[in-house]
Amino acid sequence: MVRHVLVLGAVSAALAGCGEHGDGRPSSTPAARPASTPAPDVGERKPPTLVYFQRQGAAGATFDTITVRSDGTATNEKRYGGTGGRFPELILRRGGLAQLRRALARLPEEGPLTEGSPPPGGASYLLRIRGHALTARAGGLSPDARPAVRLLDGYINGIGVRRYTREHATHTP
């Protein structure tokens, strides 16, 4: 009987530390997460975002984004329909951040970055910069937008990247 009371007491004490404080507030103990979810970097603070760039391919077949931060690091998100994606962290090559800043400075504050009537079926772009969203379509980029879109599109493809620091995926074997 004493053994049952001790076991029951130990289980009760263990459960008391999980989930909630006695007053119903959630505890700071992290909840279990699925194995496919990457562990958060505790205490890691990322520098401010310089630009967010999204590329949607022909007929919506691809959807890639890159977020470039003010220190020249970036997160590239490559999504694959409903089957997950890869999310590498990367560092731009030397001089790449300065080159990107110059190209971004040429962009207008607002409005589309497309001129004329681009041919159908090309990629569409979305840039978020300085609190504004700018859109563009391949085949009709304004001259001021071409350098920035070319650089950002290249970063998604690995062009202008010095190295990858880590990568995680939603579905890993």
Molecular structure report:
The chain has three helices and seven strands; from the N terminus they run αββββαββαβ. With 173 residues, the chain is of the alpha+beta class. The protein has a single domain, classed as Mago nashi protein. A seven-stranded antiparallel sheet has the order 6-5-1-2-3-4-7. A hairpin with a 6-residue loop joins strand 1 (49-56) and strand 2. It is globular, with a radius of gyration of 23 Å. It starts with a helix and ends with a strand. 16% of the residues are buried. Residues 1-40 have low confidence and may be disordered.
Name a few traits of the molecule.
single chain; 173 residues; alpha+beta; Mago nashi protein; seven-stranded antiparallel sheet; 3 helices; disordered N terminus
Task: Write a brief caption for the model.
This protein is an alpha+beta fold and 173 residues long. Helix content is 21%, strand content 29%. It has helices at 2-16, 96-105, 146-156, and strands at 49-56, 63-69, 73-79, 85-92, 124-129, 132-137, 161-169.
The overall average pLDDT, rounded, is 76
CATH architecture label name: 2-Layer Sandwich
The CATH C-level name is Alpha Beta
Secondary-structure-based class equals alpha+beta
- As residue ranges, the low-confidence spans are 1-40
Determine Rg (CA atoms, Å): 23 Å
Which bin fits the share of residues in helices? 10-25%
Overall body shape = globular
Number-wise, the strands total 7
Span of the ends, CA to CA: 48 Å
**Total count of domains:** 1
Task: Spell out the helices and strands N to C.
Answer: HEEEEHEEHE
Question: Could you describe the largest sheet, including whether it forms a barrel?
Answer: 7 strands, antiparallel
Oligomer classification: single chain
Strand content: 25-35%
CATH topology: Mago nashi protein
